[in-house]
Design goal:
It contains five helices and six strands. The protein has 183 residues and is α+β, with helices and mostly antiparallel strands. The longest helix is centred in the N-terminal third of the chain and has 29 residues.
Length: 183
């Protein structure tokens, strides 16, 4: 997208819209249970130890691994921001309980921003499945981490939904608060 005149179609301010944040948090909780159900079934197919007890050490390890996944998640976004807009800067932040990566004032085609949104979910989920199948992650930890990470992707899923139903030839601008749609 060059210097041609842009017409703003829609603005999504994710970080400052309290009602939207609450809605996404509720959707994230529901997603946690959906993903946990799906991936615990997968885990049960490959392991009889799915329902092992969680002790305090396992819980702490799960929390530490999840915090690591958040960092990896945002770094994956950054890699794809830079892949599609190599000269633009990427910023990282944390606001209203959400970690984020952003490339303010960068413009992307629909397919590019969908890739940016979904890449962390796909890559991390695939990685966790591989670690589980290689017996690096126990089944219960696997189901917990995939569900927690999947629930944490709710904002990415929301943006993807909006982009999929947006007009065909739009551009998406990444902003520090969310995204804008332009003709």
């Amino acid at each position: 997208m060059g210097n041609e005149k842009r017409i703003l179609l829609k603005e999504i301010n994710l970080l400052e819209n309290k009602k939207l944040i609450w809605g996404l948090n509720i959707a994230g909780i529901m997603l946690f249970f959906v993903f946990f159900f799906i991936f615990s079934k997968l885990g049960f197919l490959y392991s009889a130890s799915l329902y092992q007890t969680f002790d305090f050490g396992a819980l702490m390890l799960g929390v530490i691994l999840f915090l690591g996944l958040i960092i990896i998640h945002e770094l994956i976004h950054a890699v794809f921001f830079k892949t599609f807009q190599p000269t633009k800067k990427v910023k990282f932040g944390f606001k209203n309980g959400m970690a984020y990566a952003t490339s303010p004032h960068s413009y992307y085609k629909k397919y590019q921003f969908i890739i940016i949104c979904l890449a962390p979910f796909i890559i991390i989920t695939a990685g966790l499945i591989i670690f589980f199948l290689l017996n690096i992650l126990p089944a219960s930890m696997f189901a917990f981490l995939v569900a927690l990470h999947g629930a944490g992707c709710v904002g990415d899923f929301y943006f993807t939904y909006l982009i999929l139903f947006a007009p065909k030839n739009i551009w998406i601008e990444d902003t520090e608060q969310g995204i804008n749609f332009y003709y």
